[in-house]
Design a protein that fits this description.
With about 475 residues, the chain is an alpha+beta fold. The protein is about 40% helix and about 15% strand. It binds pyridoxal-5'-phosphate.
Length: about 475
């Protein structure tokens, strides 16, 4: 097959003979579930992230849920997260029985709007889940400042919660292992940090994930420093033991401990869950961790090549490297400037026809049925919806060659030209808003609001939608 038509997959796992060998050794070792390899991976990931403690689990979803459960969050509590994320950031809130509170993104940003976060905090808020989307860490200074400013609304209800002098941060860093922010590693900033080792992630154990934590700090001593003195009241060993119990049926001994001579007896301390990592998974992770620095630097090379190639196109890529630090380079998030959903979808189709797999990160949660059934309405999240409409995620993985990156960008340029030539002219909300304002002005000037001169259709967002003058007037009234 000529190189130019070779399919380029979106995110295949980068597995070498070393991982295959490690798995074979584990299979032959006589111990395949949670055991020595999982414990070794935990220690190495704790050192890698600079966290105070680290537990390996079967997914980032489980890690988020364990963090909420360790904190004792449940019915009657609220947890805030962003509307612009994958469902796994929010569903654990529901699963522990708390109320999901979604906030919009800031205009033109993938990050939650920190002003809106402040407005969403109530006396019931027990945690905030920011998302380090695409591997780029959020602005944790802004986030923590909002939480410190809202300290009067923090009413801790459990022993661990009482160790925190503000609402705890449970970061969804599913994408961000290896990212840095102002000289600190992802995993050593938020109070709890969940990582995903799913098959499409930078660092994989096929499925899998991990939870890192920092012991609660005393921000009143120094509200600026991230490494303020540790609050007394809880140890890392206690948190670790609690996570082990939560992730293995509340059972006082894991399978390995039970095999020690005469040590069969165990207790069930509470009805827990089943979220443990196996040694087969951990053996893949140990090799991936040896390779990870090289994998991260290859990702950086690929991103820089993309950035150079995209510089002349009417697109805006997420900044992965800046004064703030380095992302883990997980996703090549690109926005097609001023374009809308139909245009973006046509580009995806055209690229697929040339063998290039792309993706969209993310369709905001309020656009999904399950979240609508919980009462969320996409209309209340205009920035997230706008961010989504023209977002396209290009393939980014360590099996890509430099030529592959060049081909992806050439095909993107070609697809955009083609979509343009097909007359897909719908645009993003900003242009629609400008047209709306022009229309209102014209209607005001001509007094045409109630006359038959009023046009019956107006482009709002992506599609030509029939809109009555009354609806437009009420829309403007709400601004
Ligand atoms: C932002 C985000 N959070 C959480 C998850 C869940 O990760 P896992 O599949 O390890 O549970 C994902 C998975 O893709 C994700 O993209």
């Amino acid at each position: 097959m000529p190189a130019s038509t070779k399919p380029i997959p979106f995110s295949p796992p980068d597995i070498t003979e070393a991982e295959i060998q490690a798995v074979a050794e584990t299979l032959r070792s006589g111990w395949i579930t949670t055991g020595p390899r999982t414990k070794e991976l935990e220690q190495r990931l704790q050192a890698f992230t600079g966290a105070d403690g680290f537990a390996c689990l079967n997914s980032a979803t489980a890690a988020l849920e364990c963090a909420l459960r360790v904190l004792g969050i449940g019915p009657g509590d609220e947890v805030i997260t962003s509307a612009y994320t994958y469902t796994a950031s929010a569903s654990p809130i529901h699963h522990v029985g708390a109320k999901i509170v979604l906030v919009d993104t800031a205009p033109g940003s993938y990050e939650m709007d920190y002003m809106a976060l402040g407005d969403a905090i109530t006396e019931r808020t027990k945690a905030v889940i920011p998302i380090d989307l695409g591997g780029r860490m959020c602005d944790y200074n802004q986030l923590r400042s909002v939480l410190l400013l809202n300290r009067t609304k923090w009413h801790p209800g459990t022993r661990l919660q009482r160790c925190f002098d503000r609402i705890p941060i449970v970061a969804d860093c599913a994408h961000a292992l290896g990212a840095t922010w102002h000289g600190m590693n992802c995993g050593s900033i938020a109070d709890f940090t969940a990582f995903s080792f799913h098959a499409v992630k930078n660092f994989t154990t096929a499925e899998g994930g991990g939870l890192a934590w920092k012991l609660p700090r005393n921000a009143t001593v120094d509200p600026i420093a991230w490494n303020a003195p540790v609050q007394p009241g809880v140890t890392s060993e206690e948190i670790y033991r609690q996570i082990m119990l939560l992730s293995l049926h509340g059972q006082s001994k894991d399978a390995l401990a039970k095999t020690k001579a005469g040590a069969w007896e165990y207790d069930i301390e509470f009805l827990g869950w089943k979220y443990n990592m196996t040694d087969i998974m951990a053996s893949i992770g140990l090799v991936q961790l040896d390779r990870y620095p090289a994998l991260l630097s290859r990702r950086r090379e690929l991103i820089e090549r993309y950035e150079r190639n995209l510089a002349d196109l009417p697109v805006t890529a997420l900044e992965h490297f800046g004064k703030w630090g380095e992302s883990s380079g997980h996703l090549m998030l690109v926005r097609l400037n001023n374009k809308g959903e139909r245009f973006r979808n046509r580009v995806i189709e055209l690229m697929a026809e040339s063998g290039i797999a792309t993706n969209v990160h993310y369709k905001p949660l309020p656009m999904m049925t399950a979240y609508q059934e919980l009462g969320f309405d996409a209309k209340n999240f205009p920035n997230a919806c706008k961010q989504f409409r023209n977002e396209i995620t290009l393939p980014l993985h360590t099996l890509l060659s430099d030529d592959d990156v060049d081909r992806v960008t050439a095909e993107l340029a070609r697809a955009m030209e083609r979509a343009e030539s097909e007359g897909i002219v719908e645009t993003d909300g900003s242009v629609a808003e400008a047209r709306l304002a022009a229309y209102i002005k014209r209607m005001d000037e001509t007094g045409g609001w109630s006359g038959s001169a009023a046009p019956r259709a107006f482009a709002v967002g992506d599609e030509e939608q029939p809109v009555s003058p009354e609806e437009i007037a009420s829309e403007m009234g709400n601004r």
